[in-house]
Each structure stands twice: as structure tokens, then as C-alpha cells.
Amino acid sequence: MDSLDILEENVEKILKGEGLEVKEFDSARDQLQPVRLRKDVCYIVAAVIFNSKEEVLMVQEAKTECYGRWYLPAGRMEGGESILEALHREVKEEAGIDCQPITILLVQEQGPQWVRFIFLAEVTGGSLKTTAEADGESLQAQWWDRESPLPLRGRDILSLITAGLKYLQNPWFQALKPVDIPCQVICQRPLLTFVTSRSDSSEEDRLWLLLSNSKGEDASLHPHLPVEVSNKRCTVTWAVRRLVKESMSSSYSRLNVTMCGILGLQHNGRVLGKTDGICFNTLVFLEFSEEGPEIGGPPLLDGDCYRWHEVTNQPLRAKMLQRIKGGSVLPVHSL
């Protein structure tokens, strides 16, 4: 199997929500230091859970600053646990309920220092926490019909609840759960795409994918999908904009960069200070904002660090175009 066959096989895996081991990084200027949970990064999990009446699970807060108010089961991840382990623990501690995830519903982020994973989940056991079981985690739990008056800790959860109902009624992306592959830093592996439309409507669009050229000794790894490390001072999704700016600087001012969403994410977290990072596999769409000489093909690249690869494998191209045009990806909101 040649390198391009391996590449297309890897793209197929990412489209399915699977992961790939992170072996190298692009545009890493400084010596990379592993991130550490609650020191360099903060991850939060939250659960949207419904019963058969489409009532949503809520917990009453015990924290001083929001005492007595209601919110979704949510909390910060602890050192040495995976994202899914944190989800199970938080829901059990705050609501008394055992659950299993259906899918990640949304990722919200403000840079590496604050990333929240909202899950749509379902009950598998346990019982609602009562006031007799109140502790420092919560005062009680109950099902909310979304209409009865309830003093909320924050109204941000209303859109999350709506998104959960929408997904249950008509899933618009395939169910996704974190893939257990360790990573030392927060990074992004983009499927960075460019589409050129044929003048003849009977012909299919051409699809291009940005690749990073070989930098290592193992030729079987290259060409490969670029992996960009996130900057501590910027949102996680900014990493791909930096990639575009550096690789296509002469065209950057005329380009629109659209973060379509997340195709999958990789995290382990069980070795504190060594596997606290996350790799987001994303889908990114690039297009010209105005007419130009390169309009018949992808933007010109500056230097030889990257190359454009035309996806001629028809089934793979069709899958990628469907994901781009249909918006069937996990949403990510940079706050």
C-alpha cells in the first residue's frame, strides 16, 4: 500500500469518527511541553438527559455562589480520568443517576483554558438524588418539564436542552464519543478542503485536500494530514487559521476559512501531566471571497511545506462533499 492509499484510508477513519495516533506536529515553533489538567487546561463535562416524557434532568446547586439554583449535571474533570469517566462521575455525584452517552452534542471553548463537552446521554440505573442525600455536590435532582418556573443558574443551558431534543428527533451528525488515544497537547488535525465547481453542471465538483509534506525519516507516514498545536492565548479553532495564513500568505486576505465542525476527538487523560491533551479532528472549508487568477484551482501555496492533493477516489470524495455541504458534523462554538 503506497502513501496516498494510506492517506485515504486515514481520511476514511476520521470521517467515521475514529482516531489516529498523533506522531508529529506542524508549525510548532517552540519545544512542546505537555499540558496539565487544571494547570494549563480546564475541561468541563455537562449532560443533557431526558426521560420518556421529554423532561430534562436537572440538579439543584449546593455551591455558595449559586446556592439553590438549578442547572444541568456538570462539573470539571479531575486528574487521571477520561472524558467519559468524568461524565459518569459527575452525573452520579450530582443526580444519583447512572448514565451512558448517546453522543457528544456540542463542544464549547474559550481556548485551552476552558473547554466544555456537552453530552446527550440516557439513564441506565440509579435513582434521583433526594434532599435527604444533599451534600457538597448538589442539594437534589429532579425532572423538569421545561415550562414550570425554575430558578436557573444560567440560561445558557436552554439552547443545549433544545439541541438535545433536536438531535433525538432528527440526528444531523453521526453519534460521536471520545476515542481513547493519548495526546500530550491540545491540537487540531484538520481535513482542510477546497472545492472547484465544474462549468458543466453534469460533471462533479473537484475536491482538494491540504497535506503536510514529509519531515521525518519514515516515508510511510508522509504525505500526511497536518496537525496544528493550539496557542494558549487563542481559541482552539484559531490553529487552522494560523495554518492557512502561514501556508497561503499571498492569498490569505482573499480567503474565507469556515470551521464546519468536529469529526472526532481523541483523549486519554489517565496519566496526569502526560496524556491530558486532546486532538480535535476537524472539517474545514476554504473558499475565495472574490474572483481571482487562482479561481480554477486551490490557492497557491507559499513554500514546500504543504501540498494540495486532489481527491479522485469517487466514494471518498462523495462522502467528504456530503459532510461539507450537509453540515453533518459535531458543532464547535468558540466563545
TrEMBL record:
Entries under Gene3D superfamilies matching the protein: Nucleoside Triphosphate Pyrophosphohydrolase (3.90.79.10)
Span of domain Nudix hydrolase: 37-175
Keywords attached to this entry: Hydrolase, Magnesium, Manganese, Metal-binding
Catalytic activity: 8-oxo-dADP + H2O = 8-oxo-dAMP + phosphate + H(+); 8-oxo-GDP + H2O = 8-oxo-GMP + phosphate + H(+); 8-oxo-dGDP + H2O = 8-oxo-dGMP + phosphate + H(+); 2-oxo-dADP + H2O = 2-oxo-dAMP + phosphate + H(+)
Names of required cofactors: Mg(2+); Mn(2+)
Enzyme Commission numbers on file: 3.6.1.58
Short name of any one Pfam family annotated for the protein: NUDIX
PROSITE patterns according to UniProt: NUDIX, NUDIX_BOX
Residue runs in coiled coils: none
Domain of life: Eukaryota
InterPro entries (UniProt xref): NUDIX_hydrolase-like_dom_sf, NUDIX_hydrolase_CS, NUDIX_hydrolase_dom, NUDT18_NUDIX
GO molecular function: 8-oxo-dGDP phosphatase activity; 8-oxo-GDP phosphatase activity; metal ion binding
Entry similarity comment: Belongs to the Nudix hydrolase family.
Function as written in the Swiss-Prot or TrEMBL entry: Mediates the hydrolysis of oxidized nucleoside diphosphate derivatives. Hydrolyzes 8-oxo-7,8-dihydroguanine (8-oxo-Gua)-containing deoxyribo- and ribonucleoside diphosphates to the monophosphates. Hydrolyzes 8-oxo-dGDP and 8-oxo-GDP with the same efficiencies. Also hydrolyzes 8-OH-dADP and 2-OH-dADP. Exhibited no or minimal hydrolysis activity against 8-oxo-dGTP, 8-oxo-GTP, dGTP, GTP, dGDP and GDP. Probably removes oxidized guanine nucleotides from both the DNA and RNA precursor pools.
Protein name per its UniProtKB record: 8-oxo-dGDP phosphatase NUDT18
